[in-house]
Specification:
68% helix, mainly alpha, disordered C terminus
């Protein structure tokens, strides 16, 4: 009998050591290969369209991005084999298309070397992917973040306050959201703050969900919360207004409050929270547009852009006008890589990179990019909904909604659907702080998805 038991134990151990085929990683490999091929083709077409020749340096640019992406892929094979296979390829493709468009702008302005925005973007891409790899390796269990809920909340607030520290702030900036580290490069701490606050919101809502879902008064068929539960929402609303008033940053304030309301709805399932959130947003915007001149100016540009008596076409209206003209010129299929004139629009490589892409790729190309964002966000929400623990569910949903809301705010701003704010388009726009934060979001989603797939399933029947 003991011999049979030992034999069975030996077989079980052997089966455990047997490496099963990594279906998810194999799927990710082919998708990543396709993403790198598209990125390399975009860089090549940019050179052919703008210069009429191919510079061998293009191989270094495209090859460097591919090498970094596949390094993350190899790490995932060893430490997170069950992670979602779509997140990394989509983020890589969006980053590659952004580098190609930024490189296109550099050619137009004859920027070379370290003065080229594309060179800096590649350096930040390396830092971002290195940070993502570090998070995937070191954060073996994402649930440990739940222990430090309030520490992350404090860190998020401190990061938002960094631009006011003497010696770090940039005095000439339009919005007080940048810090200068040693005068070498500028960084936007609010990008990291949104991740810290997402972790804080997830942990806080898990702890207080029961009180937030308690029965209140029922009016018009909707159960409204009591004032004691409404307090935290008002606090976050006031913090968001503080960011808009003090830092002159309409985008970050809107983003943080929108993320909190979305996570609050996922945690409680109560429609009343969404209605309260929308009401507070409308109230905040109404107040800010009346007492803050720069917010009022954005609304004037939005409503009366082509009215020369209210908006100077050579002043405040020049940038949004040129962006819209670029989109109109692109039409359905675009002018082609390197064939347009996106450099006419100020900040075409950062704030208005969507209009630059729309001009050269057309409506079809822009719609394909938006579809990539849609799939990325849907995978993130799916990761959250598939989880069995509330913290992972809220965190994945909150991070995914952050990307979705940021894309909506930027695309809606440059197309005049909503007033323009100071956010950047995730993965595409030039900017190191935004790129680092977005790739850290990718790493967290990978860790959560791997943890979700490894959770034991309860089989009924």
């Amino acid at each position: 009998m003991s011999t049979d038991v030992q034999a069975d134990t030996t077989v079980i151990k052997a089966l455990r050591r047997l490496r099963m085929p990594q279906t998810q990683r194999n799927r990710e490999f082919w998708l990543l290969l396709f993403a790198c091929a598209i990125s390399g083709a975009a860089l090549t077409l940019v050179q052919l369209g703008a210069l009429g020749t191919i510079d061998p340096m293009i191989l270094a640019i495209g090859g460097g991005l591919a090498a970094l992406a596949f390094a993350l892929h190899i790490v995932l094979r060893f430490v997170a084999a069950d992670a979602d296979p779509f997140v990394v390829p989509i983020a890589t493709l969006l980053t590659g298309l952004g580098v190609a468009m930024i490189y296109r702008i550099d050619i137009a302005f004859a920027n070379t070397g370290w003065n080229a925005y594309s060179t800096k973007q590649l350096a930040w891409t390396a830092i971002s992917l290195a940070g993502a790899i570090a998070v995937v390796i070191l954060l073996r269990n994402y649930r440990i973040l739940f222990r430090y809920t309030y520490i992350f909340g404090l860190a998020g607030i401190l990061l938002l306050l960094l631009p006011f520290v003497p010696g770090l702030r940039i005095p000439d900036a339009n919005a007080q959201v940048w810090v200068s580290l040693g005068g070498m490069f500028a960084f936007q701490p609010g990008e990291l703050a949104k991740i810290c606050l997402a972790i804080f919101f997830a942990g806080y809502l898990v702890r207080t969900r029961e009180s937030l879902t308690s029965v209140g008064k029922r009016v018009l068929g909707i159960t409204w919360p009591r004032m004691r539960e409404l307090g935290p929402v008002l606090v976050v609303w006031l913090v968001s207004l503080g960011i808009i008033v003090v830092q002159r940053d309409l985008g970050t304030g809107t983003l943080i409050f929108g993320m909190f309301v979305a996570m609050l709805y996922v945690a409680t399932g109560k429609t009343s929270w969404v209605l309260i959130g929308l009401g507070l947003v409308v109230a905040g915007v109404a107040v800010a547009s009346q007492i803050l001149s720069y917010v009022q100016g954005r609304f004037v540009n939005w409503l009366f852009l082509f009215d020369s008596s209210k908006v100077d076409p050579d002043g405040a209206g020049y940038q949004p006008m040129q962006g819209l003209f670029g989109l109109a010129r692109g039409g359905l299929i675009g002018t082609g890589w390197g064939q347009g004139r996106p450099e006419i629009t100020p900040l075409a490589h950062s704030d208005y990179i969507i209009t630059s892409l729309g001009e050269e790729l057309g409506l079809i190309g822009l719609f394909a990019i938006l579809c990539l964002y849609m799939v990325f966000v849907s995978r993130g929400v799916r990761i959250g909904l598939a989880g069995q623990d509330d913290f992972g569910k809220l965190l994945a949903t909150g991070l995914s909604f952050t990307i979705a809301l940021q894309v909506f705010i930027m695309v809606g701003g440059v197309t005049r659907v909503i007033p323009l704010t100071g956010l950047t388009t995730p993965f595409l726009a030039a900017g190191g702080s935004s790129l680092v934060a977005n790739w850290l979001i990718v790493a967290l989603l990978l860790r959560i998805s791997d943890g979700v797939r490894r959770q034991p399933r309860v089989v009924i029947g």
